[in-house]
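To whoever picks this up:

The nightly regression suite flagged Ferrochelatase as changed. Nothing in the input moved, so I suspect the structure step. Input below, exactly as stored in the fixture:
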Amino acid sequence: MDATSFSGLLPHTDLNPNFARSYAQGTPLTSVSCHSLQEHRPSSQALAFLSSNKTSKITSLLGVSNVCRPVQKRNGVGKAICAVGLGVYGENVIEHQSHSHATEDKVGVLLLNLGGPDTLNDVQPFLFNLFADPDIIRLPRLFQCLQWPLAKLISVLRAPKSKEGYASIGGGSPLRKITNEQADALKTALKAKNLTANVYVGMRYWYPFTEEAVQQIKRDRITKLVVLPLYPQFSISTTGSSIRVLQSIFREDEYLSRLPVSIIRSWYKREGYVISMADLIKKEMEKFTRPEEVMIFFSAHGVPVSYVEDAGDPYKDQMEECIYLIMQKLKDRGINNDHTLAYQSRVGPVEWLKPYTDKVLVELGQKGVKSLLAVPVSFVSEHIETLEEIDMEYKELALESGIENWGRVPALNCTSSFITDLADAVIEALPTASATAMSTPRSASEEDDLDPVRYAIKLFFGSILAFVLLFSPRMILAFKNNLF
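Regenerated output under the current build:
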């Protein structure tokens, strides 16, 4: 994941507490909540003020008429091939002697991620794409006509600060390159298991956009598709939001609407994933002088508490279960170190999942912990939150708090056991592919947008209200204090 975390800027919304749970279990949804994105962490009460609308219904937040479109020019990035060593792991051992669908069907795999700017020149248009998404800045329906000009304003104001973060990690996000490597590695692993498949990469806010990947899937005449979000744990703000975009695209296309699709909604329980994480942790612990004294510090990306308590987001429960499974695997190897879980990347005035990573680091230092191993558990690729937030900001904070020995487990990237397990997950998902996987009716806001009279009324009154809002003393002060 490589985008900005702005979920905390959004207001509390009355949500159906069952929809996230049912979606995570595979039930098609008619509505999915907003994004929790992961880069350029601005503090912005202004956006929270803009987006407050506590009485809005969830269906009014899920329209797809404003789905981000590609802007400015595309920056070419060469593919980097990742060599793969294949293996078998525990209960996931599956014999694939032959696949009848390998000859009868043309199989595709779509990897989903959030994306990030390739160069410093891409930062501002990347931010524009992000802020132009109505799931990021939740404007009341009468204000939605200002979504794009507001996105332009904020992206211009935020770009200088965001560029500093990307400059510190080499001038751009590595996420696209790593995801391409993962796609190539997965294709190789599938071929080794006697399944020929085309693997596509679809990013939400930068190239290659999800829309581009879907169009290539059409051109290649794929007859069976597996959708694999690169998020181990399900959240309505990541996997849920990405699938919501796909649903809107598939619903409008005659060919895609009939395409059999299988969606892998979460995969944190998979034996290969758990083993891969345990392997990386064990390897990094051995670099400490006294490994038995190391505190294992899991740092996961946070989500607002309202997502869990009001919307029924299973993310917190899945994350805690994931940590338990990893620690059990380590205990099986004789590793019984203390561990803790905290959540990073919170922004905005709302309450996020606790405990917070920065607070816990200070507390551990005060309690006398001297050796700490940071584990970025919700990320499978290196990006700004691992390379800048953890490796720079949190490391500095930990050392200042009294922790003397710091280590960090790398992201999985193209770890062979991880890629092999993803290949097994794809093969297991193929038989469940269904043409109804992407079925979802229009939301109420979409129906309104199709009515020209209602749309004109919304545009007129929205313009008046937006003018009053944007030029109010409170808004001017908020922009001055939080966006510069």
